[in-house]
Design brief:
The chain has helices at 3-15, 20-29, 35-38, 51-54, 56-72, 90-102, 106-109, 119-129, 217-233, 279-288, 298-304, 307-316, 320-334, 339-342, and strands spanning 18-19, 80-84, 111-115, 137-139, 150-155, 164-169, 172-180, 186-194, 212-215, 235-244, 254-257, 260-262, 272-274, 277-278, 291-297, 343-350. It starts with a helix and ends in a 12-residue tail after the last strand. It is 38% helix and 24% strand. The protein binds S-adenosyl-L-homocysteine (SAH).
Length: 362
């Protein structure tokens, strides 16, 4: 048995069931055995492939968005260009290269910040960005960033933050907990205490037994921190992730290992554990700060920023094999049956500031 599995079982045996959020936090971020602390999650040799790892065009278009956000904020300098949860550093590398072409000098005048919770991944990012333009600084927390206008991006960050789950039982809604089954393995159990109905959506009243609802205080807290900074210091934020634009019931907790679905309890610390992001909840948090929050699908976002045109430009001087590869990348990033519809985008800016591709046509 893995050391983490053993530790969690002993904890539950001694102190009782833990929340799904605590289970998820231990599996992902445990200092000795957590997934992001110890593993190499990304790419063909890892467990999953993310958009920046699929194509350089993703980071190029996010750079175009970031540059527009900076211009719309009145071109403040100094400013901070930050990424939260940069994984292998590929998105920032593609962004810095593109920004340097858009505006020579921008990447040396801006303060480039990498916000990364995992020291091991921060080392990988340092190596990745060592030879490129710009001199990033690493932070383990958004709160440590200098108080300056902030343009911040994050891809597949929110899905990795823990969720709490509630389940409808014969005795009403209860928190869904991780306990121990009769065989000694992990099992979902219903919490003892009733829960505050204000946490549940209206359709919860009619939901059948077994229905599940998810909330993520950790995600909302991170969005709250981002929105607080943008409201106070100016700037904009862009987050991309899989999830839904409208809130709803459903159990979306999933484990992925070696590019295949895994049992939630099968490999704690050795499988990625995520859930779908509720974009409406994030937009609500931003709106509470008086900010503009716009959401759309990844497909609409990338196509609106010129994905097809960029692929055409890259392919124009290249051979048929490269054009074929680019067509495949466009399909994976924006195709409705690939990432185009499943992945969503939220863009947060100051009230009245509409950023591309959301800007009303002139
Ligand atoms: N953005 C990358 C990696 C996505 S995986 C890509 O698209 O390929 C999630 C990343 O977020 C990892 O780098 C993980 O260590 C980091 N992370 C998770 N929670 C975080 C937090 N609260 N603050 C900063 N980084 C976090």
């Amino acid at each position: 048995m893995s050391a983490l599995k053993d530790r969690l079982k002993r904890l539950i045996a001694a102190a009782g069931p833990i929340s799904v959020a605590d289970y998820m936090a231990a599996c992902l971020f445990d200092a000795q055995a957590g997934y992001y602390t110890t593993r190499e999650p990304f790419g063909a040799a890892g467990d999953f492939t993310t958009a920046p790892e699929i194509s350089q065009m993703f980071g190029e278009l996010v750079a175009v968005w970031a540059y527009s956000a900076w211009k719309a904020a009145g071109r403040p300098m100094p400013m901070v260009l930050a990424e939260i949860g940069p994984g292998r550093g590929t998105l920032m590398a593609d962004m810095l290269r593109t920004l340097d072409r858009l505006d020579a000098g921008f990447v040396t005048r801006a303060r480039i910040a990498m916000v990364e919770a995992s020291p091991r991944l921060a080392d990988i990012q340092r190596e990745r960005l060592a030879s490129g333009r710009g001199r990033p600084t690493w932070f383990c927390d958004l709160a440590a960033l200098p108080r300056l206008p902030l343009v911040v991006v994050g891809n597949e960050l929110f899905d990795a933050l823990p969720v709490r789950q509630f389940v409808r039982t014969a005795r009403g809604w209860r928190e869904r907990m991780v306990g121990l089954g009769e065989d000694g393995g992990f099992a979902f159990v219903a919490g003892i205490a009733g829960i505050d109905p204000a946490l549940l959506p209206p359709e919860a009243a009619e939901a059948p037994e077994g229905a599940v609802f998810e909330v993520s205080p950790a995600r909302e807290a991170l969005m709250d921190a981002v929105a607080t900074r943008i409201a106070a210091d100016g700037g904009a934020a862009l987050f991309i992730d899989y999830g839904h634009l409208r809130p709803g019931l459903g159990d979306t907790l999933q484990a992925v290992r070696d590019h295949a679905y895994d049992g939630i309890f099968a490999h704690p610390g050795a499988a990625d554990l995520t859930s779908h992001v509720d974009f409406a909840a994030l937009a609500h948090v931003a709106a509470m700060h008086g900010l503009e929050a716009t959401t759309t699908t990844q497909g609409q976002f990338l196509l609106g920023l010129g994905l097809i045109e960029r692929a055409g430009a890259l392919g124009a001087a290249a051979g048929e094999d490269v054009r074929e590869r680019l067509r495949g990348e466009v399909e994976r990033l924006a195709g409705p049956d690939a990432m185009g519809n499943l992945f969503k985008v939220i863009c947060v800016s100051r009230r009245g500031v509409r950023l591309p591709p959301f800007a009303a046509p002139a």
